[in-house]
DNA sequence: CACAGATGGTTCGCCGCGCAACTACCTCCC
DNA sequence: GGGAGGTAGTTGCGCGGCGAACCATCTGTG
């Protein structure tokens, strides 16, 4: 009668455990094989997938669930590493783009291969192809429900 | 050719976004309605579900994907708040139990209700009952694959 | 055109985690 | 039973994120 054992609590627990364990492994692997923190990878790949290889700071923050302040620092580090540059936004002088440098593009392209291997090894190899599609569909429902607006990003 | 658009990358992205957005909402809600950080909730509920309302530090660390050092600090705070006490382990003098105090048990029992409402609102209401079971099954596969050994905890 | 409120980004102070080093203890094996 | 190596837990340190306050700019309203 507690509710301590409620199935929904367990479901949340499974999500938490899957996520944290997976994230740990992917981060370790990426750091080892591409010398790139997973957070950097996530930022760079968002940029790489965007038109012109650039994105407004606020859009990037929304997509990565980083706060504006956290994103500012993260971009600072990427700029210091020469992978990203800040470009002023011509139509809104408050705004700024984060834009991939050629070095940044090289770096992310070189990292994708190893990363995919890690994803396959630690994640998708646990699931058949149709299960992967099921999981994607279910997670998309959850994502759209809890964070509507993150879906509407593609240019 | 890029692989930047690989479905598996997207699947990882969905997992990340679902998790982070959900965690943010659940944490906010729990803090508001039960004045309890989500991490505290997770620790307390693990203890509440364990025989004798206590667990070895290392077991708790393994279950919560916290490092031993992180767990030590977290338990420090829970002890300071009077929700948990440390008990020496009679059979292994290196070891220690984290054990719920009566106040801790009250606190977690009072928090479960509101938390379940948040979970329902932000998470499970996006899915039909059979979809919830599907998702649980898929995540369990992933969890067992990436973190085998986390499964074998129940006393 | 002026001013009020909203919005994009950055900066500052604080907190919490992980890693590595350390201590205490246990266990295995000779 | 004694020493080597492993395991449980804690501590020192640095990194990195968040929230709040802040500045600059935009937008709407009279």
As a whole number of angstroms, the C-alpha radius of gyration of chain A is 18 Å
Which strand order do you get reading across the main beta sheet of chain A? 1-3-2
Mean pLDDT of chain A: 91
Describe the oligomeric state of these chains in a short phrase: homodimer
Q: Largest interface, per-chain counts? A: A-B, 60 and 60 residues
Which parts of chain A are unreliable, with pLDDT below 50 for 5 consecutive residues or more?
Answer: none
Helix-strand string of chain A? HHEHHEEHH
Q: Sum up the overall morphology of chain A in one term.
A: globular
Tell me the number of strands of chain A. Answer: 3
Number of helices of chain A: 6
The share of residues in extended strands of chain A comes to 5-15%
Through-space gap between termini of chain A = 50 Å
Name the structural class of chain A. mainly alpha
Indicate the percent of residues in helices of chain A: 55-70%
Largest sheet descriptor of chain A: 3 strands, antiparallel
Describe this structure in words.
- The structure is a homodimer.
- A 3-stranded antiparallel β-sheet of chain A has the order 1-3-2.
- Helix content of chain A is about 65%, strand content about 10%.
- Chain A contains 6 helices and 3 strands; from the N terminus they run ααβααββαα.
- With about 160 residues, chain A is mostly helical.
- The interface between A and B is large, with 60 and 60 residues.
- The first copy, chain A, binds a DNA duplex (30 and 30 nucleotides) through helix 3 and helix 4.
């Amino acid at each position: 009668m507690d509710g301590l054992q409620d199935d929904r609590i367990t479901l949340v627990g499974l999500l938490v455990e899957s996520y944290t364990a997976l994230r740990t492994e992917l981060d370790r692997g990426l750091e080892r094989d591409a010398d790139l923190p997973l957070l950097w990878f996530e930022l760079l790949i968002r940029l790489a997938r965007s038109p012109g290889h650039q994105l407004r700071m606020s859009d990037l923050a929304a997509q990565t669930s980083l706060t504006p302040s956290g994103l500012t620092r993260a971009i600072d580090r990427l700029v210091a590493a020469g992978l990203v540059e800040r470009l002023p936004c011509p139509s809104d002088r408050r705004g700024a783009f984060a834009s991939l440098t050629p070095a940044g593009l090289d770096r992310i392209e070189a990292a994708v291969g190893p990363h995919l291997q890690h994803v396959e090894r630690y994640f998708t190899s646990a699931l058949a192809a149709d299960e992967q599609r099921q999981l994607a569909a279910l997670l998309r429902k959850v994502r759209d429900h809890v964070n509507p607006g993150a879906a509407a990003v593609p240019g």
